[in-house]
């Protein structure tokens, strides 16, 4: 499937003001400029990902700097949560900083004003090989499913920003998490409700946390690992670790590094039948971490356990 090109939408949204008075005003501007649901959702997502900064302070402290939300008039718990998160999303728009819940709620309520069906998906994000094999009890991430082009589409505005804690107002936008395929998102996102995997064959939480940890670059280069390769690799000392890919861009340069390496080292990609293979020399005698790079960017990482 060829990804849809949204350059025409992004170009228009680049001229939008850096702030809006309300979610309704934001949605009205989008409705004025675009006609299809896909373009409207893209416009909302693109503006949010490029103007809302990730709130690292809130992540560390568990507290945000928004005004206290008080809901006095509500019919039931569902009505209370609806009104609470609507105010919460308004604070995100006004202050332009949030954690994942804020990004996803703002996109949800913007879609509601646009009369586009959307959901906030709660679940878990897999971000470090240190978590391989560890199944958390609580959810720790939120993203969206939005209905357009006659199907549900998965979107993570938070992971699209490319914000960094030590770089205020820095944005390294990537749209790889806009309408990302379910097969790719399940590498890093596990929804609490399995139906939002949007996969014909659902993945268990155990299998999810036994995967290698993939980074954004892995998605950008459209790589696919052999499904037999897990997050933990047992390798003989003074032998090779063999990484097998179903698909990988052979025009790029690839490198690897173990945790104690000062510099990464180049590795060749060779064709082996229908697979592409990278053979990495391993001399370690202690547990290690292996990172595989495309250029300067980490693609995927593994935990290595030496055997004799």
What is the correct CATH architecture of the largest domain? Answer: Roll
pLDDT averaged residue by residue: 94
The fraction of residues in strands falls at 25-35%
Any idea of the CATH topology of the largest domain?
C8orf32 fold
Q: Helix segment count?
A: 9
Low-confidence runs: none
| Structural class category | alpha+beta
Protein name: Transglutaminase-like domain-containing protein
GO cellular component, one term: cytoplasm
Pfam families: Transglut_core
Domain Transglutaminase-like: 92-159
Describe the model.
This is Transglutaminase-like domain-containing protein. With 308 residues, the chain is an alpha+beta fold. Helix content is 28%, strand content 28%. It folds into two domains: 7-211, C8orf32 fold (Roll); 220-307, Immunoglobulins (Immunoglobulin-like, Sandwich), CATH 2.60.40. The protein has helices at 7-13, 23-33, 37-51, 56-61, 77-95, 100-113, 182-185, 205-208, 216-220, and strands at 53-54, 97-98, 118-125, 141-148, 151-155, 178-180, 189-191, 213-214, 224-225, 232-236, 239-247, 254-258, 265-267, 270-272, 275-282, 288-294, 297-307. Strands 8, 10, 12, 13, 16 and 17 form a six-stranded mixed sheet that branches. A five-stranded antiparallel sheet has the order 6-5-4-3-7. Helix 2 packs across helix 6 (100-113) and helix 3 (37-51) runs antiparallel to helix 6 (100-113). It is elongated, with a radius of gyration of 21 Å.
């Amino acid at each position: 499937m060829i990804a849809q090109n949204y350059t025409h939408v992004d170009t228009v949204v680049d001229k939008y003001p850096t702030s809006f008075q309300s979610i309704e005003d934001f949605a009205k501007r989008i409705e004025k400029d675009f006609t299809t649901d896909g373009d409207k959702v893209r416009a909302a997502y693109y503006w949010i990902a490029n103007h809302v900064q990730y709130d690292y302070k809130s992540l560390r402290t568990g507290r945000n700097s928004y005004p206290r939300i008080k809901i006095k008039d509500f019919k039931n718990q569902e009505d209370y949560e609806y009104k609470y998160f609507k105010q919460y999303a308004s604070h995100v728009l006004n202050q332009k900083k949030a954690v994942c819940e804020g990004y996803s709620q703002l996109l949800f309520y913007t879609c509601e004003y646009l009369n586009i069906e959307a959901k906030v998906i709660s679940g878990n994000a897999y971000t470090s090989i240190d978590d391989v094999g560890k199944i958390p009890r609580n959810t720790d991430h939120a993203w969206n499913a939005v209905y357009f082009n006659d199907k549900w589409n998965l979107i993570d505005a938070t992971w699209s920003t490319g914000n960094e804690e030590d770089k205020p107002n820095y944005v390294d936008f990537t749209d790889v998490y806009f309408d990302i395929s379910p097969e790719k998102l399940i590498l890093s996102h596990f929804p609490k409700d399995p139906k939002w995997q949007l996969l014909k064959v659902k993945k268990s939480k155990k299998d999810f946390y036994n995967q290698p940890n993939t980074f954004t670059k892995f998605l950008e280069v459209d790589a696919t690992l052999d499904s037999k390769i897990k997050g933990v690799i047992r390798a003989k000392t003074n032998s090779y670790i063999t990484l097998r890919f179903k698909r990988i861009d052979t025009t790029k340069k690839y490198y690897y590094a173990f945790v104690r390496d000062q510099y990464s080292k180049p590795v060749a990609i060779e064709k082996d039948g229908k697979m592409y293979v990278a053979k990495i020399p391993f001399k370690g005698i202690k547990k290690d971490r292996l990172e595989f790079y495309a250029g300067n960017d980490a693609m995927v990482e593994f935990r290595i356990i030496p055997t004799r």
